[in-house]
Amino acid sequence: MHGESIRSSGYFPGIYDPGPFNCITDVSGVKVGQLTLIEGDSVRTGVTAVLPHGGNLFLDRVPAGVAVGNGFGKMVGVSQIQELGELETPVLLTSTLAVPRAMEAIIEWTMAQPGLQTVQSINAVVGETNDGYLNDSRRRPLTVEHMLAAIETAEAGQAVAEGAVGAGTGTVCFGWKGGIGTSSRRLPPESGGTMLGVLVQANYGGYLQVLGVPVGRLLRQESSKQDDEDGSIMILIATDAPLSDRNLRRLAWRAFAGLARTGSSLSNGSGDYALAFSTAHSVRRPMNGRREAGQIEHLPNDLISPLFQAVIEATEEAIYNALFKATSMTGYLGRTIEALPVARVLKIIEDSPWLAENHKRV
Fold this sequence. Notes:
alpha+beta
């Protein structure tokens, strides 16, 4: 059963349909690159890069907003996004102790872009979760070159690998193998027809629920396995809806509702971060000054609610995909984290009459 998404298993979270890939790359122009590093018995780590578009990100900035559910984490670049409401570099997700090298890679890559020969300030944005249970993170095996490779190999318009890959290589979620997950939603024409995509690095705890069914509790009754409430998650949200940075921040906050649906309580020891950006040309912030303030057209507040629904659904499904697609892994100190027993989870869901009728596509 592993390798299948929850959707390919016959269950369809939410009310909106996904894009063609059911990935963050369904938002036109968004690029994702990943590097997975598995070496010997103790290195289980990686990096995932997300680029809002394929142009010069520093000169053609996108509006962005950040939300912090519980701040036990290290997301670099947050204060400038909060202050200016814009993103000027790729976003890298990686291991906690690899954050400085990720920053160095972003700075090196950005300074090498055309027209930036005199730039002296770059707001590198890096998110992390701690993969130290399966990965010997104190060795800091990820190099600047690894980080650069993830950026430089990023592609748009194709499916994104999920599960134990990239920044999700060494992660653990609800005591099972976590990873990278992604999902998307296209709003119907009457709600604007825009696209929204989510990518998560799932490495957190709690009491797993799938489609409202307390599968974590039921699985623990069948084994001695215990869930850990702490951990972290990074949530990246892209949309082609023309949103202001203020409404992107509001959108980012709604992602935590999708996180909560999966059983997280955003515990004291969890780092829960969401970053949302818009790729719409009408709200871009070019550094050449060609666009006057009056030319910027933001979606009004009254039309935002369908996007709130979409980000909740896509976040929930992205997390399920991270769990469903991850495989068991043995790593540092011989520790093993088993994959979620997907067949058993689906059987538990199937035995719930309401879900069997209401989450299958009619």
